[in-house]
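Support reply, case 0932

Customer input (verbatim):
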Amino acid sequence: MNSDELNDLKSAVDAALQGNWEQAHEIAQESEALMANWIHAVLHKIEGDAGNSRYWYARARKNYGDYLDPILELKAIAAELNEKNV
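Our regenerated output:
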């Protein structure tokens, strides 16, 4: 993942944490990175669309039930993205 894509995904997480689901969703959809799929999965979990969310978790190679709180999950994603920036 290049630095532009990394920054875009960070922006998607920031938007989601601020409640801007649509902006976060648009950004996540533009990337094919595993992290984008994970963000996409969490966004659909927040939306209440479990079936679609599970699809995106599978694409991200993550488990739907690993996090009960989507906000904590978004913060975990942010932490992983920040580690990639080091």
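We compared this against your earlier run and they match. Two observations from our side: Residues 42 and 70 are 6 Å apart (CA to CA). The chain has a mean pLDDT of 93. Please reopen the case if you see a mismatch on your end.
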